[in-house]
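For reproducibility, we list the full input for the adenosine-5'-diphosphate complex.
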Amino acid sequence: MTTDTLLTVADFSVVYDVEPPVEAVSHVSLELRRGEILGLAGESGCGKTTLAYGIQRLLKPPAVITSGSAVFHDESGEDVDINSLTIDEMRAFRWNKVSMVFQGAMNSLNPVARVGDQLDDVFTTHRPSLKKAERTDEGKRLLDLVGVGRDRYRSYPHELSGGMRQRVMIAMAMALKPQLMIMDEPTTALDVLVQREILIQISQLREQLGFSVIFITHDLPLLLEISDRIAVMKDGKIVELAPAATIYRQAEHEYTRRLLGSFPSLTGDRGDFIRGGQHEEGDQ
Amino acid sequence: MTTLDFRHVTKQYKVRGAGDMLALDDVSFTLTSGQTIALVGQSGSGKSTIAKILTQLERETSGEVLLDGEPIPRRGKGLRAYRQRVRMVFQDPFASLNPYHTIRHHLERPLRLDKVVPGDQVEDEVRSLLKRVRLEPDAVVDRRPHELSGGQRQRVAIARALASRPELLIADEPVSMLDVSIRLGVLNLLADLQRESNLGVLYITHDLATARHFSDEIMVLHHGVVVERGPADDVILNPQHDYTRALRDASPDPDKHFADPAGPATPRS
Ligand SMILES: Nc1ncnc2c1ncn2[C@@H]1O[C@H](COP(=O)(O)OP(=O)(O)O)[C@@H](O)[C@H]1O
Ligand SMILES: Nc1ncnc2c1ncn2[C@@H]1O[C@H](COP(=O)(O)OP(=O)(O)O)[C@@H](O)[C@H]1O
Ligand SMILES: [Mg+2]
Ligand SMILES: [Mg+2]
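The corresponding predicted structure, in tokenized form, follows.
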């Protein structure tokens, strides 16, 4: 892994212009390195999805970007300020350079179209020069790559398990070989065995293909295992950003410690889980 | 001591166009007052089916369920009395509370129906129930469910389950819909109440870590079959069945991931 920076987010803020206005992302700055998995942790409502959308210009009204910038440092050497792209440029940018696996994505496949045809669509739209046979080849190769298998190319979504559908979504996100994949709670709805398989797959693909990942979840233990670095978000702000081992061993921020303490250890001591003891009340 | 016996229970659902679906296959266990059992397994393994049979929302296909040696009454007064002794806490506190009624109404209802206390003591009992689940009565009693946070709603649901002074509690994924930072608080509360009232609790979850810490024993359900059971620490730290081991190894475990002499974990607060 090089230490090159792939994405620079600076002083980025997003406000939902409702009554009263909600500052969902508040002056966020971070640098994403080429090839790294950055975990974005935080509880529901802290602004993770809004930040992910914001840096891809996917936000719709009433969301307004009120400050800051997101600059993508393309492998060609060109710097792309995401806010200055035209709509068409943005559309191309989004699949080619950055792609996203949306929260609940596995339920967003078109139920009446074969998986292969949905992959084919991505190529038809973004790689118009490819011939039909090339598109099919590439689609099947992708299904192999994510562990679904090419024999599912002609399956309909309902013929696949939730885990398989999620892998298809990952295949689609990888189709155009983006340099960054943003995954918003990609395994939250899945059982642990399936989740683990997908996490291993993502790590392997990252090794092979060298893309960066922003992996969003509230599951901090999971992030500790898979991330190079972790950003902890609370109330729209990044309160701490550090290598996973640092977060694990010597987190500095009170909130990070509290979040860590929210997950009892699987094989270690009881930690905060004290049967019959005295506890702080979290939500009064 | 109250004893609930699940004996050789099988449950077959009829699935239209697909024949029968065997959701439980010869499941047996015993839950007694004062005991905590965690029932773990992946989604679809049959956990909620056990809960539904225990509360008679579903009927077993074969086998029997006995409370202190007596079959569960199927209807009427007998069933009511049974449900007063064996209560349920559901996953989604929003769905299980009525949006049109105040918190007071939710708690008064079981108190009056089950004649737990004389009429003139109902109001006091409502307040004392709220205090037991660490809610400030004045702050919540006249509110409706949507005016409370998720954690507060689940505390109300627990208070309501306790209103009838049950001996056994079936909690089906009671914290999985709550924000992570309040899950432990609610589970710790359940653990405290369990001890205070010597409740028997069946804690249903897909989370092995809380299963281990909450309960005395763990039962692992896989495709409707109990594949392993034993003291909680044994099942997690030294699993005997391949499936249990697979579940354990797939669950995030940063303490193991970072286990090396380089230094201790962050002090957690
Ligand atoms: N369309 C919207 N209008 C108003 N507020 C919104 C909208 N979408 C999200 N929010 C608010 O913005 C905050 C951040 O939401 P979100 O980015 O979805 O958080 P997360 O992904 O961390 O759960 C929350 O307080 C949420 O209620
Ligand atoms: N009412 C029903 N009709 C048909 N099949 C059902 C019904 N309820 C549950 N099932 C099936 O029974 C199995 C066990 O379900 P459930 O007990 O809800 O599992 P869990 O709570 O462990 O996720 C699943 O395969 C589920 O699809
Ligand atoms: Mg989100
Ligand atoms: Mg269930």
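Strands of chain A lie at 5-16, 22-33, 37-41, 63-73, 79-81, 98-101, 180-184, 212-217, 229-234, 237-243. The longest helix of chain A spans residues 192-209. Both points were considered when choosing residues for closer inspection.
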